[in-house]
Amino acid sequence: MLSNEQLERYSRHIILKEVGAKGQKKLLNAKVLIIGAGGLGAPAAMYLAAAGVGTIGIADADEVDLSNLQRQIIHSTQDVGKAKVQSAKETMEAINPDVKVITYRTFVDSESIMDLIKDYDFIIDGTDNFPAKFLINDACVMAKKPFSHAGIIRFKGQLMTYVPGEGPCYRCVFKNPPPKDAVPTCKQAGVIGAMGGVIGSLQAMEAVKYILGVGDLLTGYLLTYDALKMEFRKIKLPEHTEDCAVCGDHPTITELIDYEQTECEEI
Amino acid sequence: MSEIHFDEQVDITDVVCPVTFVKAKVALEEMDEGQVLAVKMNDGEPVQNVPRSIKEEGHQILKLDTNDDGTYTLFVKKVGE
């Protein structure tokens, strides 16, 4: 049963036909893992906490740096030097004491990821480097976990959603990480602060819709956003690729790969 | 005046908008189709808005009785799952 305080806190949700008390209870019982407490993870974590997602895991090995604060709105000036996961936990718990936050102060790699994702219903990729993105994709395909991919750089952002058996995975579309230094990191290229807010919030929206079981997810599509042109494009992706190295009919990738990690910080 | 039989009741006189409607909606969600809910509410804003919101959800408003003490009781038949 929802308490009177919860009825009030979540009233704008419960009023919605698509949510109701039943949907709110689904959110309260749901478990979402956010990998990366940076530009994307910050708004995603805050909206999911506010929405009453009952268990939120957050993984990041870094400490809060002054240069993070231009976009990573879950951290404050007083948090500089603090572990990002701790700072993120404090903000989420301040927003909503209903939420249980589990912190993982670790770099996600092939050794740790399967254990990390196994208890979660949905995973949000808030990382900014290709090795991590391919690792998260491959692990989620192998563990049959739905996840939201996103990336942001300069004035652009993109996202797609993977649900097992319902469309292509990230590797179906992008095959392999680009050559080292072919694509600049956001440390080198820069990123406009609100981009994390736009795209990370859309990731939170996908997680919420998945949990509620309402609407159409971004499976089989890549949504791109160009802030300078103020254009969103929803690009239809090829169907599940039979020859995909990880989710295809005869996968050649059966063990997780740690691609060489270029020097990079969380976006 | 014949009494209406009801299956469940909820008192929303102790809360304000929008929790008034929320409490009524939550009570209806937990009932079966065709069952009747009695909602006790204050005069004024709740009487003006709660019956309308419940109707918009697709339920059937049966009757609104005054309790002659500044409160009303609304009888609603649940429609749908």
TrEMBL record, chain A:
GO terms for cellular component: cytosol. It comes from the Bacteria. GO terms for molecular function: ATP binding; nucleotidyltransferase activity; sulfotransferase activity; thiosulfate-cyanide sulfurtransferase activity; ubiquitin-like modifier activating enzyme activity. The keyword Transferase applies. Residues 10-245 form the THIF-type NAD/FAD binding fold domain. Keywords: ATP-binding, Nucleotide-binding, Transferase. PANTHER family: ADENYLYLTRANSFERASE AND SULFURTRANSFERASE MOCS3 (PTHR10953:SF102), UBIQUITIN-ACTIVATING ENZYME E1 (PTHR10953). This is ThiF family protein. It comes from Anaerobutyricum hallii DSM 3353.
TrEMBL record, chain B:
The keyword Transferase applies. Gene3D superfamilies: TusA-like domain. Pfam families: TusA. Keywords: Transferase. GO terms for molecular function: transferase activity. Residues 9-78 form the UPF0033 domain. Belongs to the sulfur carrier protein TusA family. This is SirA-like protein. It comes from Anaerobutyricum hallii.
